[in-house]
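hey so u asked for the seq, here:
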Amino acid sequence: MLIRLVITSILLLASAFLQADTLKPFTSDGCSAFPDGTFDQKNLWLECCQQHDYDYWQGGTYQQRLVSDKQLKACVTQVGEPTIAALMLAGVRVGGTPYLPTSFRWGYGWGHPRLYGALSIKELAQVAELSTHLPFVKEKILKNK
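ran it, structure tokens below
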């Protein structure tokens, strides 16, 4: 009986890690548990959050997450809300950890657990394939040409 329990536990853990190899289609909940803008401009920094969600969806290294979080802060500051930007940065640094099974964690497009680490060539291909229809990704590609 104990052996069966151990084998079942190992299989469950293995299946959790195998699920991390398939990327789900991109989704964004805007600014997660934070407003998307002010009372007067309801979507003022929504695009900043959607780009940030894109980065979080695909995940990657700790350094990539840090860059993404700093870009979110810069973007929200650029729309005229530096205080909000600082609050958001603090929130994503604490709440975006990949160690919790939240819907907004770093690498949420992959199965959990998906911790920090560079994406493989196969994984990058999945990101590219699932990103072609996203308007802000096309804009980014055009800017980099």
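Helices lie at 2-19, 46-58, 62-78, 82-95, 121-131, 135-144. Residues 2-19 form the longest helix (18 residues).
lmk if thats what u needed
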